[in-house]
Amino acid sequence: MNNKRIAFLGAGNMAEAIISGFIQSGKLSTEQIVVTNRNNQERLNELKDKYDIKAVTKDQLDYTTIDIFILAMKPKDIDGVIEELRQKITADQLLISVLAGISTTYMEENLNDLQQVIRVMPNTSSMIQESATAVSPGKYVDMNQVLLVKELMKCIGEAYILDEDKMDIYTGIAGSGPAYFYNLMEHVEEVGHQAGLDRELVREIGAQTLYGAAKMIMEQEETPKELRENITSPNGTTAAGLDALNEHGGGMAIIEAIKSAASRSKALSKKPEKKLALQK
After folding, report:
1. Is 12 annotated as a binding residue?
2. Which end of the chain, N or C, is surrounded by fewer C-beta atoms within 10 Å?
């Protein structure tokens, strides 16, 4: 990545997942990465020893040597971080935000003029480098920067460029999506266990079934509807199962789940007008 230096502001699980992906991909060297937090030296030492990267507290970080900052602290801490960044960085230093509910507009309005900001939203599967990550550009970045960030995020899975106004529906589909599948697997595991199968065996069978079905969607030309129709014989076992699923909510339950998660995401988002007073 052209020897760019990247600093993580925040040392939580998501920061670690991205650091691990960067290093395992071979696209970044350990010398290019520094991680920092406010004062948790024990956590910094843990990441330093595990990944052989530089780890310092915030007051030890030389902001002038960093090309890209990845904001990975808790979203509730954003206002204090904005105050610090406005005093220590320039507009041509790129900010990548992993903070849920914090819009690029919010950061642009409260940082330096023309501040370069890109928002990314990985999901929990980033922990195993299988994330579906949304990449949303701010106003003041060019396509080369967007493609650079997309390439970085592909170190933890797949990455997709989305407009900011699509981030809430992304949250409903991909951000909250893993929980829908886990919930499905809870029920699959329970019914299999009730029928006399070992729970771990049911879990493995169910997970392989989901994995195989997902892989077919990714690799075949047919749409999900066509794939479903291909394996649904009239009056067969699959038809019976789908009839029962639809009778008890089925597709409408999934639609409502996604809409509800997207609506909550929108309600929780920071609106830029709330903090404009910071610049006065």
Report:
1. yes
2. C
